[in-house]
Amino acid sequence: ESNNTYDVCLRLTRDALTIQKLDVVCTSGSESQVNHRTVVLRRQATGGLGLSIKGGAEHNVPVVISKIFKDQVGKETLSITGENGEVQVNGINVEHCTHQEVVHLLRTAGDEVTITVRYLREVPSFLKLPLGSPGLGHSRVSSPLFDSGLHLSSNGSNTTPSPPSPSAEEPKYEKRWLDAVCLPLLMARVSRYKAGTDKSRTNCFEVLALDGTDTSILQFCTSAESTDWLQAISTNINDLTQEHVKIINKFCSSDDQIVHMGWVCECPESRATGRPSALKFLALRGAYFYIFKCPPVSNIDTADWGQAETTYNLYEVLFKVHKLWMSEDCWLQARLYLGLELSPEQQDVESLCFSILVGHGQSHTFRVELASELAVWEKSFQKAVFLEVQRIRSKSYLCSSQGSVLSFTIDFTSGFSCSEGSSKSVLWRYKFSQLKGSSDDGKTRVKLLFKSAESNQIEMKELEFANLTAVLHCIHSFIAAKVASMDPLFVCSFPGNYNS
Asked: With contact defined as beta carbons under 8 Å apart, do 263 and 281 qualify?
């Protein structure tokens, strides 16, 4: 995204991602001996001061002596070549001066100039890869990131002499990879997308810690290498999150357990709205589906969980994965179910999204970074809904039919029933297996088609609800939980005994 790039080394551990930068370290001698060095330069009639400078405060980089012309200066002057930043010129501090200010000061400093310099560790990369260099789309004219010659040499020589061999007393330096940034991975997040957009970066992603520390953009040579690192980092983040969930659950009742939580990106319902994508932290806990702007970091503090941006009853929410395939490309569906990754060519803005459909036709669409994350969210939602239905066992909604106020009940054991609102007497009852179809007007009315156990005929029941969507989602949740309870593998994956 910019030309200010440099090589880094990544080290991934269980708890953190460390970024290392190539730096120069003192391996022997005393660094303080040359931390500051003062040299007196005498201006030559034909060669000027015999040096060039680069940098300036306007680019937030120090002014450095970048070149020394050895045929125009004395031996002592050669010791300030290369990796030294100017501190003073004739006693005037120039550490915060612009490039042109230092150029003017040196040119008007007289025939004898006293320069004090300080060794700068991070200057080598700045000298080696100046911003705005030819080939990067910038002009070289009057750039403070290029050499300003003060030598006035007539021979045009631009060669930089090799630094003199250090004496035994002088310190020796060596390039090494040193830790620069360490990001804790607990509740961290990764993103391949440019902030606030649905545009994915090529071979790039960034990692952002909960405390706000970030890696900037990490760019890799190939998509495969980028995906490998993305998966490895995401795996560690998820493992740490699950360990944190276990700690929280130790302090919570069996009805208030966390099933899963993590970062996602909420996508606008329509690009025409102009609303940018936004990062959200989702959690499936107890009876609710939570949407946060920031994670609830406390183990047991209910105040943190009370800061949720939105909360929904789990049994009234429908989870829907966006399709990844067209017509007969069913193998893509299989890869998603297994949590396998897709190649960049198979992924688009819709490929790793899921929606949460809630009451009154409202919905939220979220995007994740990996197919494995999408599979985890789908399975976790199924588990959370199953546990919640097992907990409440039944749910009733007020409705009306032909002008009468009724109570419609969905019961995990007995199925569907409808009773009078005042007397509570049951008007009709059907098992889940007797529901053969339904239709609704998309607003308030629904027709439920049941097969009578006595006559084997289809009987239609027409009901009207204030929030039809929530009722339909609740019916779906109870039927899905009933089907899941018949699967021994599904039931055995949960703690406790949920046989019905």
From this structure: yes
